[in-house]
Write a structure and sequence with these properties.
The protein is an alpha/beta fold and about 250 residues long. The chain is built from 10 helices and 9 strands.
Length: about 250
Amino acid sequence: MMKTRYFRAIYIDLENISPETDLRLLLEEIALKSDDEELTNVYAIKLACGDSNSIKNFREQLLQLNFDIRETPHLSKSSKKNRADLIISIEAFESLYQKNPEIDQYIFITSDADFTVVMDKLRKYGREVWLVTKKSDAERPIFNSACDAVLVLEDYRKGRERESNDSGGKKWEFLSDLGFTREEASQIKLVLESFPKDEWHHFSSFGNKIRNTYKAFTYRGKKLNSQTKLFKELRDRKIVEIRKSDGADQFRVE
Protein backbone atom coordinates (compact mmCIF):
# COMPACT_ATOMS: atom_id res chain seq x y z
CA MET A 1 0.00 0.00 0.00
CA MET A 2 1.32 3.43 -0.95
CA LYS A 3 2.21 5.57 2.03
CA THR A 4 0.05 8.70 2.34
CA ARG A 5 0.99 10.00 5.80
CA TYR A 6 4.19 11.20 7.44
CA PHE A 7 4.12 10.65 11.20
CA ARG A 8 5.88 13.07 13.53
CA ALA A 9 6.57 13.05 17.25
CA ILE A 10 7.29 16.38 18.96
CA TYR A 11 8.62 16.82 22.50
CA ILE A 12 8.95 20.14 24.36
CA ASP A 13 11.23 20.77 27.31
CA LEU A 14 9.26 23.75 28.62
CA GLU A 15 11.85 25.05 31.08
CA ASN A 16 14.43 25.44 28.33
CA ILE A 17 12.47 27.64 25.95
CA SER A 18 11.26 31.23 26.13
CA PRO A 19 7.63 31.94 27.14
CA GLU A 20 7.53 34.23 24.08
CA THR A 21 7.65 31.22 21.75
CA ASP A 22 4.63 30.92 19.45
CA LEU A 23 4.14 27.16 19.21
CA ARG A 24 1.46 27.32 16.49
CA LEU A 25 3.75 29.35 14.27
CA LEU A 26 6.54 26.84 14.88
CA LEU A 27 4.36 23.86 13.95
CA GLU A 28 3.26 25.63 10.77
CA GLU A 29 6.86 26.26 9.79
CA ILE A 30 7.76 22.61 10.36
CA ALA A 31 4.91 21.59 8.05
CA LEU A 32 6.10 24.05 5.39
CA LYS A 33 9.60 22.56 5.52
CA SER A 34 8.35 19.05 4.81
CA ASP A 35 10.61 17.25 2.33
CA ASP A 36 7.85 15.09 0.89
CA GLU A 37 5.16 17.44 -0.41
CA GLU A 38 2.81 14.59 -1.37
CA LEU A 39 2.34 13.25 2.17
CA THR A 40 -0.07 14.47 4.81
CA ASN A 41 1.74 15.37 8.03
CA VAL A 42 0.37 13.88 11.23
CA TYR A 43 1.61 14.61 14.76
CA ALA A 44 1.16 11.20 16.33
CA ILE A 45 2.83 12.28 19.59
CA LYS A 46 2.80 15.74 21.16
CA LEU A 47 4.28 15.82 24.66
CA ALA A 48 5.38 18.80 26.77
CA CYS A 49 7.18 18.46 30.10
CA GLY A 50 8.11 21.05 32.73
CA ASP A 51 7.58 22.32 36.25
CA SER A 52 4.38 24.08 37.29
CA ASN A 53 5.67 27.57 36.43
CA SER A 54 6.77 26.69 32.90
CA ILE A 55 3.53 24.79 32.27
CA LYS A 56 1.60 27.89 33.38
CA ASN A 57 3.47 29.99 30.78
CA PHE A 58 2.41 27.68 27.94
CA ARG A 59 -0.79 26.05 29.18
CA GLU A 60 -3.20 27.88 26.86
CA GLN A 61 -1.05 27.26 23.78
CA LEU A 62 -0.54 23.60 24.67
CA LEU A 63 -4.26 23.02 25.26
CA GLN A 64 -5.18 24.67 21.95
CA LEU A 65 -2.65 22.47 20.12
CA ASN A 66 -3.74 19.26 21.91
CA PHE A 67 -0.43 18.54 23.60
CA ASP A 68 -0.15 16.04 26.41
CA ILE A 69 1.19 17.97 29.41
CA ARG A 70 3.27 16.26 32.06
CA GLU A 71 4.55 18.00 35.17
CA THR A 72 8.18 17.24 36.02
CA PRO A 73 8.99 19.00 39.33
CA HIS A 74 12.53 19.71 40.44
CA LEU A 75 14.23 16.95 42.37
CA SER A 76 14.72 19.20 45.39
CA LYS A 77 14.15 22.82 46.41
CA SER A 78 17.81 23.64 45.83
CA SER A 79 18.09 21.81 42.50
CA LYS A 80 17.38 23.35 39.09
CA LYS A 81 17.30 19.89 37.53
CA ASN A 82 14.13 17.95 36.79
CA ARG A 83 13.49 14.70 34.96
CA ALA A 84 12.10 16.12 31.72
CA ASP A 85 15.09 14.93 29.70
CA LEU A 86 14.83 11.40 31.14
CA ILE A 87 11.06 11.13 30.71
CA ILE A 88 11.05 12.47 27.14
CA SER A 89 14.02 10.31 26.14
CA ILE A 90 12.35 7.14 27.44
CA GLU A 91 9.03 8.05 25.78
CA ALA A 92 10.73 8.71 22.45
CA PHE A 93 12.80 5.54 22.49
CA GLU A 94 9.81 3.48 23.60
CA SER A 95 7.80 4.73 20.62
CA LEU A 96 10.54 3.43 18.34
CA TYR A 97 9.65 -0.13 19.38
CA GLN A 98 5.91 0.27 19.76
CA LYS A 99 5.53 1.30 16.09
CA ASN A 100 1.93 2.34 16.68
CA PRO A 101 2.23 4.20 14.42
CA GLU A 102 5.80 4.04 13.17
CA ILE A 103 7.28 7.51 13.66
CA ASP A 104 9.15 8.97 10.68
CA GLN A 105 10.47 12.11 12.34
CA TYR A 106 11.26 13.18 15.91
CA ILE A 107 11.37 16.85 16.88
CA PHE A 108 12.86 18.07 20.15
CA ILE A 109 12.36 21.63 21.41
CA THR A 110 15.03 22.26 24.02
CA SER A 111 18.41 23.76 24.80
CA ASP A 112 19.44 20.89 27.07
CA ALA A 113 22.38 18.94 25.63
CA ASP A 114 21.30 15.83 27.57
CA PHE A 115 18.75 15.21 24.80
CA THR A 116 21.51 14.57 22.27
CA VAL A 117 21.89 11.04 23.65
CA VAL A 118 18.44 9.92 22.54
CA MET A 119 18.59 12.09 19.41
CA ASP A 120 21.76 10.38 18.25
CA LYS A 121 20.33 6.94 19.04
CA LEU A 122 17.12 7.59 17.07
CA ARG A 123 19.16 8.59 14.02
CA LYS A 124 21.12 5.36 14.26
CA TYR A 125 17.81 3.54 13.91
CA GLY A 126 17.09 5.42 10.68
CA ARG A 127 14.77 8.11 12.04
CA GLU A 128 14.94 11.75 11.04
CA VAL A 129 15.61 14.06 14.00
CA TRP A 130 15.10 17.82 14.16
CA LEU A 131 16.07 20.18 16.95
CA VAL A 132 14.50 23.54 17.79
CA THR A 133 16.78 25.50 20.11
CA LYS A 134 18.03 28.94 21.11
CA LYS A 135 20.09 30.87 18.60
CA SER A 136 23.06 30.80 20.99
CA ASP A 137 22.98 26.97 20.93
CA ALA A 138 22.12 26.39 17.28
CA GLU A 139 25.72 26.02 16.13
CA ARG A 140 27.02 23.91 19.02
CA PRO A 141 28.75 20.81 17.61
CA ILE A 142 27.10 18.53 20.19
CA PHE A 143 23.68 19.44 18.79
CA ASN A 144 24.60 19.49 15.11
CA SER A 145 26.20 16.06 15.28
CA ALA A 146 23.01 14.53 16.74
CA CYS A 147 20.30 15.83 14.40
CA ASP A 148 19.38 16.33 10.75
CA ALA A 149 18.16 19.92 10.97
CA VAL A 150 18.17 22.80 13.44
CA LEU A 151 15.55 25.54 13.73
CA VAL A 152 16.08 28.68 15.82
CA LEU A 153 13.54 29.39 18.56
CA GLU A 154 13.80 33.16 18.27
CA ASP A 155 12.35 32.95 14.74
CA TYR A 156 9.02 31.82 16.22
CA ARG A 157 8.35 34.44 18.85
CA LYS A 158 4.91 35.89 19.49
CA GLY A 159 4.13 38.81 17.21
CA ARG A 160 6.02 37.50 14.19
CA GLU A 161 2.83 36.12 12.62
CA ARG A 162 1.22 39.57 12.55
CA GLU A 163 4.37 41.01 10.96
CA SER A 164 4.24 38.30 8.30
CA ASN A 165 0.58 39.01 7.57
CA ASP A 166 1.31 42.69 7.09
CA SER A 167 4.34 42.19 4.86
CA GLY A 168 2.65 40.93 1.70
CA GLY A 169 2.23 44.36 0.16
CA LYS A 170 -0.11 45.35 -2.64
CA LYS A 171 0.97 42.32 -4.67
CA TRP A 172 -1.32 40.12 -2.56
CA GLU A 173 -4.22 42.48 -1.86
CA PHE A 174 -6.21 40.97 -4.73
CA LEU A 175 -6.85 37.83 -2.67
CA SER A 176 -9.00 39.81 -0.22
CA ASP A 177 -10.98 41.23 -3.14
CA LEU A 178 -11.64 37.66 -4.29
CA GLY A 179 -13.11 36.60 -0.94
CA PHE A 180 -10.15 35.12 0.90
CA THR A 181 -9.75 36.06 4.55
CA ARG A 182 -6.58 37.74 5.74
CA GLU A 183 -5.42 34.49 7.31
CA GLU A 184 -6.13 32.48 4.14
CA ALA A 185 -4.31 35.03 1.99
CA SER A 186 -1.34 34.91 4.36
CA GLN A 187 -1.23 31.11 4.17
CA ILE A 188 -1.35 31.15 0.36
CA LYS A 189 1.60 33.53 0.33
CA LEU A 190 3.61 31.59 2.93
CA VAL A 191 3.02 28.22 1.28
CA LEU A 192 3.99 29.46 -2.18
CA GLU A 193 7.14 31.06 -0.77
CA SER A 194 8.11 27.71 0.81
CA PHE A 195 8.56 26.08 -2.61
CA PRO A 196 12.00 26.38 -4.24
CA LYS A 197 11.94 28.65 -7.25
CA ASP A 198 12.87 27.37 -10.71
CA GLU A 199 11.47 23.92 -9.88
CA TRP A 200 8.17 22.45 -11.06
CA HIS A 201 5.74 21.13 -8.43
CA HIS A 202 2.42 19.30 -8.65
CA PHE A 203 -0.74 21.22 -7.78
CA SER A 204 -1.40 18.55 -5.14
CA SER A 205 1.80 19.57 -3.32
CA PHE A 206 0.36 23.03 -2.74
CA GLY A 207 -2.94 21.52 -1.60
CA ASN A 208 -1.24 19.21 0.90
CA LYS A 209 0.91 21.98 2.36
CA ILE A 210 -1.93 24.43 2.80
CA ARG A 211 -4.05 21.78 4.51
CA ASN A 212 -1.14 20.84 6.78
CA THR A 213 -0.62 24.45 7.90
CA TYR A 214 -4.21 25.71 7.97
CA LYS A 215 -6.88 23.05 8.36
CA ALA A 216 -9.78 25.51 7.94
CA PHE A 217 -8.64 26.64 4.48
CA THR A 218 -11.43 26.42 1.91
CA TYR A 219 -12.36 27.65 -1.57
CA ARG A 220 -16.04 27.54 -0.71
CA GLY A 221 -17.74 30.90 -1.13
CA LYS A 222 -14.75 32.42 -2.94
CA LYS A 223 -14.84 33.98 -6.40
CA LEU A 224 -12.02 31.53 -7.19
CA ASN A 225 -13.79 28.42 -5.95
CA SER A 226 -11.12 25.87 -6.86
CA GLN A 227 -7.36 25.46 -6.73
CA THR A 228 -7.20 25.41 -10.54
CA LYS A 229 -8.90 28.80 -10.74
CA LEU A 230 -6.61 30.19 -8.05
CA PHE A 231 -3.50 29.12 -9.97
CA LYS A 232 -4.80 30.58 -13.22
CA GLU A 233 -5.23 33.89 -11.39
CA LEU A 234 -1.72 33.60 -9.92
CA ARG A 235 -0.41 32.90 -13.42
CA ASP A 236 -2.15 35.93 -14.89
CA ARG A 237 -0.55 38.06 -12.17
CA LYS A 238 2.87 36.54 -12.96
CA ILE A 239 3.27 35.05 -9.50
CA VAL A 240 3.54 31.48 -10.85
CA GLU A 241 3.87 29.63 -14.14
CA ILE A 242 1.64 26.64 -14.77
CA ARG A 243 1.80 23.75 -17.20
CA LYS A 244 0.49 20.22 -17.75
CA SER A 245 3.09 17.47 -17.78
CA ASP A 246 2.32 13.75 -18.17
CA GLY A 247 -1.32 14.56 -17.55
CA ALA A 248 -0.64 16.36 -14.25
CA ASP A 249 -1.05 20.05 -13.47
CA GLN A 250 2.19 21.66 -12.29
CA PHE A 251 3.33 25.09 -11.13
CA ARG A 252 6.59 26.98 -10.70
CA VAL A 253 7.00 30.06 -8.50
CA GLU A 254 8.37 33.04 -10.42
